[in-house]
Amino acid sequence: MDEFGSKVVELFTTPEYIDSLLHGFLLTLQISFFAILLGLLIGLIVALVDTSERSKWTILPKAICKIYTTIIRGTPMALQLFIMFFVIFAIRGFPQIIIAILAFGFNSGAYVGEVIRSGIQSVDRGQREAGLALGLSKFTVFRRIVAPQAIKNIIPALGNEIITVIKETAIVSMVGMYDLNMAAKDIGSGQNMASYIVPMFVAALFYLVTIYLITFAIKRIEKHLQKSEARG
Amino acid sequence: MEENILEIKKLKKEYGRNKVIRGIDFELGVGEKVVVLGPSGSGKSTFLRCINRMEEPTSGEIRLNGELITDKNIQRMRQQIGMVFQHFNLIRNLTVMENLTLAPVKLKLMDAVAAEKKARGFLRHIGLLNKANSFPAALSGGQQQRVAIVRAMMMNPKVLLFDEPTSALDPESIGDVLALIREVANTGVTMMIVTHEMGFAREIASRIVFIDEGHIIEEGAPGEFFSHPKTPRVQEFLQKVL
User: Fold this and answer.
1) Which among A18, A217, B20, B118 could disulfide-bond with B43, CB atoms 3.0 to 4.6 Å apart, if both were Cys?
2) Is A96 buried (19+), middle (13-18) or exposed (0-12) by CB count in 10 A?
3) What residues of chain B, 72 to 111, have a C-beta less than 8 Å from chain A?
């Protein structure tokens, strides 16, 4: 126990260790943040294409979206990361962080697309009909009626996806990137097994607090959205 | 000669192999109150929903005031065709007031002030002015349907379509909703009503249309229709429901 205590003290008093953890944490946040943004953008496009009416103009985009989601959802994230790093962007000097953002963004987009699509489709058909029967345009019906109702169904599942992305970025350590996960391993390495415990617990705490805060924020948004349909 | 507001020719609607409307010719004169009757699954709701293209007809022509309804002009046409749904379909994320004013303001038929004034007048009339800022979830079914009727009236429609307006209501609210439809009828607006309320049909209709298996098989004035039905199918139907 004494040893454990001294390890904690050591970790928080050695500037290089703190530096490593913070740098790793920052990289995790950067990759996560931009990957989530990219995923939202791709997901939104996929969902809109998927829910659009069938016509000669939408056949090709619909097929592309279908192939994209099938491939992404049917292969491991780690493999997608490797393909991005060692096949598609096997260019010397290309910034690793951008490759990682693209890998996680493209992956997340497929899942976000499903979340948004099912959110849109779960809006009662009669709501759309009511707007159309009044002579409103499809665009107005979507913006004023379907989208606001779909968002309520989408937010909770989207929260899950955001959390998943943050945790999944830990696998960038597999391609040698120095994220929070890698920092924890790095600090503990070269010593005995016990020396791993403290940095790994600290890294776990970083992840946990980040995700807790996001969960909390999403619950607040959910509550806020529920209020706009309250009785009374 | 009587002026027709709606002219429907050779209307067909098929879902794959399932032929729901098998060729309907129909004319609706200005000010008429047509009640569409028929057994469930006969295609009467589909017929009504084809008129404002809630269902895309497979073939046939529909003219409103002589103008053919097409994909291009459907938005403008729908502004003149009000619809009241079985399940009310008030927009859940909008208040009662917003439900009434959204379309007329957005489509520039009225400015926001005029629309709100008109909506208040309607709501006062149906005794729901105190619910103006409530969301639909706070209203009973009967209240929601009366708001939905008023929402259709906000557009000054040339024709009002009612798709089983009381089928989803409890017996107590049915009376309130029928009373409002009766009042709307008295304003002279042209109406088509799909309903199972035989008493109401007899009272309000200027003409009854009976649909079975996607065809109009009999039509006529309500007195004649109910007391001396011509076809065996209608005789059988009336025997069961009356």
Assistant:
1) B20
2) middle
3) 75-83, 85, 87, 89-94, 102-103, 106-107
A127, A136, A229: residue with CB nearest B106 = A136
Q: Which residues pair with B208 in a beta bridge?
A: B35, B220
Structural domain spans, chain A = 2-227
**What's the pTM?**
0.87
Q: ipTM of this complex > 0.85?
A: yes
Between CA A145 and CA B21 the distance in angstroms is: 31
Q: pLDDT tens, B98-123?
A: 999 999 999 999 999 999 999 999 99
Closest by Cα among B110, B145, B111 to B126: B145
The number of C-alpha atoms within 13 Å of B60 and in the hemisphere containing its C-beta is 24
Q: How far is CA A82 from CA A69, A77, A89, A92, A100, in A?
A: 18, 9, 10, 15, 10
CATH architecture of B4-90+139-241: 3-Layer(aba) Sandwich (3.40)
Superfamily for the A2-227 domain: MetI-like (1.10.3720.10)
Q: Do A133 and B52 touch (CB under 8 A)?
A: yes
